[in-house]
Amino acid sequence: MQLLGSKWQIYVPMWEITKVLPCYEELVLLQPQDASLHCMLGELYLMMGSSSSLLSNLILARKHIALSLELSGDSSNNLRALYALVDATASYLELVEASNNNNKKVEDKRGASCEGIASIWCR
For 76, which DSSP code? Predict the structure, then answer.
């Protein structure tokens, strides 16, 4: 299990999120009550950026981050999940608003926040 969790150290700095995502999905299956794993999985979905299924990634990100807050009990101690939930919700609302405005192409404006999350992970 430690091997699965340590792959993020290799792939996240290289922006190979699609390679580390299945590892965290397996970890969540092995430890479904671990709030930090749900938070990290939600952040990975959030970092997926402008993939073909951006809307579904944002929905999954919100789901796992909210579950992380629920599992941690006192949400004031889980600031990382709170900020990630705000970012995921803002991105979701921005995407929905843009699709309602004449189906304009949505630009991925979360690049700076994704780099910030990656830099926290790589410490």
Answer: G
